[in-house]
Amino acid sequence: MGLTAAGCLDYGEEASKPDSDSNGTTIGPTTDPTAPPLAITPVIVYTLKETHEKFGTDLPVPSYLPDGYSFSYALQYGEPDNRISLIYAKGEDELRITQVPVPGNPCPGQKNTGSVGVTIDGTNGTFTPGDRENVLRWNDAHYAYCLSGTQEVDEMVAIAASVKEHAGGGIVAPS
Questions:
Q1: pLDDT tens digits for 44-91?
Q2: Is the pLDDT reported for residue 16 higher than 50?
Q3: Residues 14, 8, 6, CA angle at the centre, nearest 5°?
Q4: pLDDT at 58
Q5: 91, 61, 86, 36: which is closest to 163 by C-alpha?
Q6: By C-alpha distance, which of 88, 94, 90, 103 is closest to 138?
Q7: Nearest CA to 101 among 130, 78, 127?
Q8: Rounded to an integer, what distance in angstroms lies between the CA atom of residue 157 and that of residue 140?
């Protein structure tokens, strides 16, 4: 299970350890304490219960998933965006739901070419088809969301519509 599965901008890759060239000098990230970090290492958890305990109750947990998908793992990235991603898998195929606590584009770096407008339970969003994954984006009053996977537009809209804003202390487990 890799961290670069279907998804939004993936801060999950750790910065490489510095290598040494033939002269023994270090090649790699700067050691300047004022430089921004090169990567954000996420907190990874492997159960919905632990996800709830570590990340709180405002999670993008869908009440509907396509047949065969089940929770695989969750990632929480720190500053600058405090992004949370829940990853559901069916074999090698992954479906990623990412939530950012500031409305805007939660999928920087993803192409927008060919995007079409969609409506998700009365909320406007955009669906962008891709070669290996499709991306659905939408916002509510508190969060920006990105849903990425191989599903077609109608299936992705159904998943997005089932994401319950402000779970209110409990996780809604997919049936």
A1: 999 999 998 988 878 899 999 999 999 999 999 877 778 899 999 999
A2: no
A3: 90
A4: 83
A5: 61
A6: 103
A7: 78
A8: 15
| CA distances in angstroms from 123 to 59, 101, 119, 135, 157, listed in the order given | 18, 17, 5, 16, 11
Residues 6+ apart with CB under 8 A from 30: none
* Assigned token pair, 94: 């992954």
160, two tokens = 């997005």
**Cβ distance 81 to 100 under 8 Å?**
yes
Q: What backbone torsions phi and psi does residue 48 show, to the nearest 5 degrees?
A: -65, -35
pLDDT for 111: 67
How do strand 116-120 and strand 123-128 relate by DSSP bridges? antiparallel
SS (H, E, C) the chain: CCCCCCCCCCCCCCCCCCEECCCCCEECCCCCCCCCCCCCCCEEECCHHHHHHHHCCCCCCECCCCCCCEEEEEEECCCCCCCEEEEEEECCEEEEEEEECCCCCCCCCCCCCCCEEEEECCEEEEEECCCCCEEEEEECCCCEEEEEECCCHHHHHHHHHCECCCCCCCCCCCC
List pLDDT tens digits, range 116-166. Answer: 999 998 899 999 998 889 999 998 888 889 999 999 999 999 999 999 653
Query: Global pTM?
Result: 0.70
